Amino acid sequence: MALLALHAVSKSYGAVKVTDAISFAVEPGETLGILGPNGAGKTTLFNLISGALPRSKGELSFLGQPLFRVSARDMCLRGMSRTFQHAALVGDMTALENVAIGATHLGRCGWVANSFRLDRMEEQQLLGWAQHLLERVGLANKANELAGNLSLGHQRILEIARALAADPVLLLLDEPAAGLRVNEKTVLADLLNSLRIEGLAIILVEHDMDFVFRLADRLMVMNFGRRIAFGRPDEVRADGEVQEAYLGVAA
How many degrees, rounded to 5, is the angle at CA 250 between CA 246 and CA 251? Predict the structure, then answer.
């Protein structure tokens, strides 16, 4: 059974189609890379999958259950977490506290820490879980540093730790390697590979083709809202329409 399945999912604003009849499925433990030039519709597709935007047309199922109308909060509670193009951390809270927010019932769906009134035992459990996740992603020594003081590479990994705090089965990553140096990308790639080995399914939107080609089991390429290629990385790399979309000339 596919973990996530889309059939002809579209989003339109009037006569303008931002995504046009996108179909694909993701298996448990699979890393699917989504590539495409600026304006291809990648982030809109993420918003449709995560419930941040309503679909105009098409069908979506998660964990074998068809979903007709869903919210971002509902998808969080069902086992889907995501990160964003720009780090959405609470800069004046520590790394540990940022991850703990993701472990709370509402916090993992984007509510701020001040919304919660936790008893001491629950607070200690959340902080213990958060510390475990920081160790898991290699940031244990940054636990008490303010998130806003961390390097961009560490902020990206901290966002992933916070997304993992909700204990998801599917992780959506929106351009996690954007702005990172070569060594930071290597650290990030190693982390994502380890999560995949542990059985987590990942959908990864990126502009860095080399980064995605090293990580993905399969790739989908979008252009002008359409799916123009889908398959193994070597198949997609050789596709003439993909080369034209990226290089401006046919292969």
Answer: 95
Write out the two tokens for 158. Answer: 């901290």
> How far apart are the C-alpha atoms of 102 and 110, rounded to whole Å?
8
Q: What is the pLDDT of residues 195-251, one digit of tens each?
A: 999 999 999 998 888 899 899 999 999 999 999 999 999 899 888 888 887 655 444
Distance CA 222, CA 159 (A): 25
The angle at the Cα of 17, spanning 14 to 18, to the nearest 5 degrees, equals 115
* Pairwise CA distance, residues 11 & 21, whole Å: 9
With beta carbons less than 8 A apart as the criterion, state whether 168 and 80 touch: yes
- Whether the CB-CB separation of 4 and 170 falls below 8 Å is answered with yes
Mean pLDDT of 122-134: 86
Strands ordered across the beta sheet of 65-67: 16-26, 4-13, 57-62, 65-67
* Separation of alpha carbons 20 and 12, rounded Å: 8
H helices, E strands: number in the chain:
9, 10
State the Cα–Cα distance between residues 46 and 115, nearest whole angstrom.
26
The residue among 35, 33, 28 whose CA lies nearest residue 4 is: 28
Structure tokens of 157?
């990994």
Compute how many other C-beta atoms are within 10 angstroms of the C-beta atom of residue 105: 11
Tell me the three state secondary structure of residue 14: coil
Asked whether 169 and 2 are in contact (CB, 8 A), the reply is no
Kind and range of the H or E run holding 19? strand 16-26
Structural tokens at position 5? 């399945």
Two tokens, residue 19: 């995504």
For the packed helices 95-103 and 152-164, what is the interaxial angle rounded to 10 degrees? Answer: 30
- Work out the widest C-alpha separation in the chain, in whole angstroms: 62
